[in-house]
């Protein structure tokens, strides 16, 4: 929690986003998840969409008018690197993990779980990263997801309605992992093989 709070504090000083009219990329991410059997939903708008309000807070002044922001920015990659050093299977470094965390805080994300009857395995467990389907963030997330691939459980491309190409990693110990782009957003479906279809149907 302390690490997340620190990341949140340094997320905005570098942002150049301005308050604008809501576009498709700024609509609530709830549209990605079926309303039926939705048992968990968490959405964070992202600080980019609340730039003016953020600039009026005491935390913003603390970070931009003192050395606190620079201290957090220098320390977080080192802390994450220390944590990652204990996870031999993780193929990212502290700076990359920091950049991913800052993107989530700046741009926003959502997590939803649909479970029929509220019990048993979810029929849909999805994560949506706003603006995650482009640039270094997309490459980083895909590298993390593809790291689960093995000769027996490789990644296959599935064609879905609307010209979508879903990348699916099946038969992993964690269940089925799939991901694809929706405009600038990156959608990740976990555990359930029916997750991508449920999200696409909702859209």
Structure overview:
It is a single chain. With 203 residues, the protein is an alpha+beta fold. The chain has seven helices and seven strands, in the order αβααααββαββββα. A seven-stranded antiparallel β-sheet has the order 1-2-3-7-6-5-4. Strand 4 and strand 5 form a beta hairpin. Helix 4 crosses helix 5 (94-107). The model is unreliable at 1-22 (pLDDT under 50).
Write the layout of secondary structure elements.
Blueprint: H1 2-10, E1 38-44, H2 51-55, H3 58-65, H4 68-84, H5 94-107, E2 109-114, E3 124-129, H6 135-146, E4 155-160, E5 164-172, E6 175-182, E7 185-189, H7 195-202
Antiparallel strand pairs: 1-2, 2-3, 3-7, 4-5, 5-6, 6-7
Helix pairs in contact: 1-4, 1-5, 4-5
**Structural class, from secondary structure content?**
alpha+beta
The unreliable regions are 1-22
Specify the helix fraction band. Answer: 25-40%
Q: Output the number of helix runs.
A: 7
Output the strand order for the largest sheet. Answer: 1-2-3-7-6-5-4
- Beta content comes to 15-25%
What are the secondary-structure elements, in order, as H or E?
A: HEHHHHEEHEEEEH
